[in-house]
Structure formats: structure tokens, C-alpha cells
Design brief:
Blueprint: H1 3-38, H2 45-58, H3 60-84, H4 89-111, H5 124-145, H6 150-155
Helix pairs in contact: 1-2, 1-3, 1-5, 3-4, 4-5
């Protein structure tokens, strides 16, 4: 594989991981804060924003590691399938990111000392939301890996 092509895929990989981790972190914060409000805790909008910011700094790296490891398995498999079924390219990556994170969360929860590492994934709505963030990141990778010029990619309709 050419160095330029490898670099291109690496950049899209990093963008996919970052996008999924940031979205997932924001979503998990929303689910956690909503659970506290449901318990009767009053949370101001300022505290809500501060908590999102703190989670972006403290939780996003953890989620990024989980997602990056997941993508290291999902992307080669998605690339293999997309070569054989080119029309399914973006959907293969979307579904792979979705299911791959579910498997990754299952593995992480099995080895973590606490019942669940990510509190928002204790229930299905939170789990599905974070899985959708990972699916979006892998879909973004599938879109980006097809284009050499990022400006061309930005101008195309989704």
C-alpha cells in the first residue's frame, strides 16, 4: 500500500475515533445527568455544561481507546466485505461500528472490576446511543477512505 494512501486512511481512522469518542462522551454525560435529575437532584444548566466539559476531558480518552481497539477489528473486516460487495460499503462500516462497540462494551464490562465501566450503558437506551456514536464514526471513516481530497468530500451531499 502506498505511503500516501496509508497516511490518508490513518487520518480518517483518527478522525473517526475522535468523532465517535466525543459524541459518545457527550451522550453518556446526558444519560448520567438525566438519571440524576430523575432521582431528584437539581442541576443547573451551568453545571450541566461544566459536567459535559469535564467528561470531554476525562472520559473521552477512555472511550477513544475502547473505540480505537474496536475499529482495529471492524475496519479490516469492513474493508474485506466492501471489496466483495461494493454497494454495501458504507452500511457495512456503519453496522460494524454499531455491533463492534456492543462487543467491545461486553468485553470491557466482563473484565472491569465494577458491573459496568460506562454508567450510561447500564440500560439499553444509553447503550444504543453510544453504539450509534461508534457507528457514525465508522460510517465517517467509510465515506472518507473513498476520497483523496478532503475538500471534495466536504462538498458532496451525504
Amino acid at each position: 500500500m502506498q505511503t500516501t494512501k496509508l497516511w490518508h486512511r490513518f487520518c480518517w481512522f483518527c478522525l473517526a475515533v475522535l468523532t465517535a469518542a466525543v459524541l459518545g462522551s457527550i451522550l453518556q454525560t446526558q444519560f448520567n445527568l438525566a438519571a440524576l435529575v430523575e432521582l431528584g437532584v437539581g442541576i443547573s444548566w451551568q453545571d450541566w455544561l461544566v459536567t459535559i466539559g469535564k467528561d470531554l476531558i476525562s472520559f473521552t480518552p477512555t472511550l477513544a481507546i475502547i473505540i480505537a481497539v474496536e475499529y482495529l477489528f471492524v475496519f479490516p473486516l469492513g474493508t474485506f466485505i466492501a471489496r466483495h460487495y461494493p454497494k454495501s460499503n458504507q452500511w457495512v462500516f456503519f453496522v460494524g461500528g454499531f455491533v463492534g462497540l456492543w462487543v467491545a462494551l461486553w468485553v470491557v464490562d466482563a473484565i472491569a472490576p465494577m458491573p459496568t465501566l460506562i454508567a450510561a450503558t447500564r440500560d439499553w437506551p444509553g447503550t444504543l446511543a453510544i453504539m450509534l456514536a461508534a457507528a457514525f464514526g465508522s460510517w465517517l471513516y467509510a465515506r472518507g477512505r473513498q476520497h483523496r481530497d478532503p475538500l471534495k468530500f466536504a462538498g458532496e451531499p451525504l
